[in-house]
Amino acid sequence: MGEEFAYQDSKAPFNMAIATLMSLRNTLDRIRDIEGRIDYPPEERQRIKIELVKRFYVDSSPLINDSTVIDSYKDILKLRPLQVMNVNRNNQKETKIIVYSYELNEQLDEYLLNLQVQLQKNKYFMPPSEDMGSMVGKMS
To answer: Model-level pTM?
Structure first.
């Protein structure tokens, strides 16, 4: 009744590590693109960047594969845009507004830098020099 497979190919038809790296590259490209969008207000660009950095962290964690390293960056998930209280001069009503923070932007860049260094420790971003020829062929 049920079909049984007597032979199973040892090569996976889908390489999750390569797909994850492509996703990470896409996220880094989106971060770069959003930072260049001068038609967006700075606080909106920063809000989007925060979410993309969180995505980068979550997506890179299977490749880092070291729980102590992953846990050391868990604060990324708690990042929020900087909010300040704004008082309307006319009616004295207080509202919270999101403002751009240079310090937060620096923190986001440091997180991205450190996560990429962790990925490089496992040789995910730059293949060994002897593999460069075959890698270039795959990317074109």
So the answer is: 0.75
